Predict the structure of Chaperone protein DnaJ.
Amino acid sequence: MNDYYADLGVARDATADEIKKAYRRAARKLHPDVNPGPEAEEQFKKVSQAYDVLSDAEKKRNYDMGADPYAGAGASGFGQGFSFSDVMDAFFGAGAGQAQGGGPRSRQARGQDALVRLDLDLADAVFGAEKELTVDTAVGCSTCHGAGTQPGTGTRTCDVCQGSGHIQQVQRSFLGQVMTSRPCVNCQATGQVIEAPCYECSGDGRVRSRRTLTIRVPAGVDTGTRIQLAGEGEVGPGNGPAGDLYVEVAVRRDQRFQRQGDDLHATLEVPMTAAALGATVPFETFDGVSELDVRRGIQSGEQILLRGLGVTHLRGSGRGDIIVHAMVATPTKLTSEQEDLLRQLAALRDEEKPTGQVANPTEGSLFGKLRDAFKAR
Ligand SMILES: [Zn+2]
Ligand SMILES: [Zn+2]
């Protein structure tokens, strides 16, 4: 035998009002529209069945004397097929279960947000930029000013729903008669029908239009950064307020620099002779040409720092750095004269027969990092 009092969570001497309140509370928590999932659904069936018995004076009396009308039947389909609004309406009158009340809907609505992509060069991200952007969005129809009617014509009351925007239906259920209400298709729930749709916008009150915007891209943006332009998105139906426009930035790959946060990394080829003798090398940055001091004896992988010449921080102030990685270039083609000189040098340095000594790379150098990477495995 089912324990309907326990299912509803009420005492055996609960009043009809308390039983109703308990069911309402349970429906708000367990109705499949509110709480999708098999467990909640099963529980909802159970409390609906309990309510069916305890809310009916005769069934309740029989049950209290030991006769369970659903003994052995399991929780059946009680309460199924009625939306949460329907169940709430059955208790508290039409509209109780809906977020918005009844009545016709406005033809006007807020427009959707729009998203466009903007491709930028790294230099634009470093300093920020002003960019022109062509967008294609809905704008208000200038022929009907959003009304959707052809000039000189109007609207008439929808004869399907008599202007209410909704179609009411009565369904019989264990809750008694349930009034269900659904939006009228004939008038899109507005209660009014356009007699002659505007030829420009076909009654939508808006048309698509292409326009060019100038947008200010702040310094420091990176691929994926979104810039929000309030009210520049799609105008809503019936010339409703426009949504926002989101501009998503994509920074193109740069030939020279790899970005890491707000730092920029570059690799500098240093001729073998310059690496040995030291040199001052012109190096182009986004701020102009810098003189790079390549110290005498520099090794491949050593870094030269250009402080504050990287990308501007998007938030806060200041800029990242440029980090130049030296790469000593070994000559691959030698004239016979160059080869002679190099052989003489090798002889002078006693390097004609290298011994194959294992290097002990310094921390932070390219080879040091390589070694650490292998160690970590
Ligand atoms: Zn129009
Ligand atoms: Zn209608």
In short: The chain has three domains: 4-71, 105-141+202-252, 257-374.
